[in-house]
Write a structure and sequence with these properties.
Helices cover 46% and strands 16% of the residues. The protein has helices at 10-21, 28-41, 59-71, 96-106, 120-129, 151-160, 175-178, 184-197, 202-215, 232-243; strands at residues 25-27, 50-52, 55-57, 74-76, 80-83, 109-114, 134-137, 164-167, 217-222, 247-249.
């Protein structure tokens, strides 16, 4: 094993374990996002954060990254941070919080989210707070009069905060099928028809499940605030039943 000094502080070891859990490389934006999510949702308390470029940022974490690079643990480039030495294989590394970070970062979750009644900023914050790395738009026609929610604008804005975007139109519902829906019975019938046709969308479902395997934390999105009133719940129910997939509705 290569001779290298262990970092002095537990928070620095925590950073290394987080990189290890992400297969060794994260963009600078994504590392800050994952750190923020762990502090918000998992009770980790190594760093404080300030709002920064529509996201959250810790200057202490940035300083620790530079210190770890000087120690030879990682390499920092303009956009990415790459782990150079595996820390989990070392006998002298036993920080329980790092193991927790590994578990949380590898947890695979399918989220669903609608944008009805909220601004793009509030919507984006929900994605960031839940460490979502990819947004899959399951609208047939991804256009909206509401700022930030048409395909091209949404894709560009999300890219600025380190979240990728993909449109999967095959999982959408045609506009004609949504006309004249006034009662709960109308919506129930729409969803029954959609559920019956969903298994036929093998390519689109495979695309979604493959993305979930690769990104681990993705969200599918449409308009309606309540998931029960949107076809996205049919997709998540299908994957939850078929693949025993963990699902969270935001």
């Amino acid at each position: 094993m290569k001779k290298i000094n262990l970092p002095k502080f537990h928070r620095q070891r925590f950073l290394l374990s987080l990189l290890e859990s992400a297969e060794g490389t994260l963009s600078k934006i994504e590392l800050q996002q994952r750190l923020f999510w762990l502090h918000q949702k998992a009770g980790v308390s190594y760093y404080d954060f300030i709002p920064y470029n529509s996201s959250y940022y810790s200057f202490q974490a940035d300083s620790d990254i530079k210190a770890l690079q000087n120690l030879g643990w990682l390499k920092e480039t303009d956009k990415n941070i790459t782990l150079l030495e595996s820390i989990l294989s070392r006998n002298d590394y036993k920080t329980e919080n790092a193991k927790m970070a590994l578990f949380l970062s590898n947890n695979t979750v399918l989220f669903t989210i609608g944008y009805e009644g909220i601004s793009f900023e509030a919507y984006a914050n929900r994605l960031l707070e839940n460490n979502i790395r990819l947004l899959c738009d399951v609208r047939k026609n991804p256009f909206s009069r509401k700022f930030g929610f048409s395909k091209n604008i949404m894709s560009n804005l999300l890219e600025k905060i380190g979240i990728e975007y993909q449109h999967i139109p095959a999982l959408g519902i045609i506009s004609a099928a949504r006309k004249d829906l006034t009662t709960k019975a109308d919506y129930s019938q729409l969803f029954l028809d959609y559920q019956a046709s969903l298994p036929q969308q093998k390519d689109a479902l495979k695309q979604l499940t493959d993305l979930l395997k690769n990104y681990r934390r993705i969200a599918i999105t449409c308009f309606e605030k309540e998931h029960q009133m949107c076809h996205r719940h049919c997709i998540s129910d299908y994957l939850e039943t078929k693949n025993n997939q963990e699902v969270i509705h935001l």
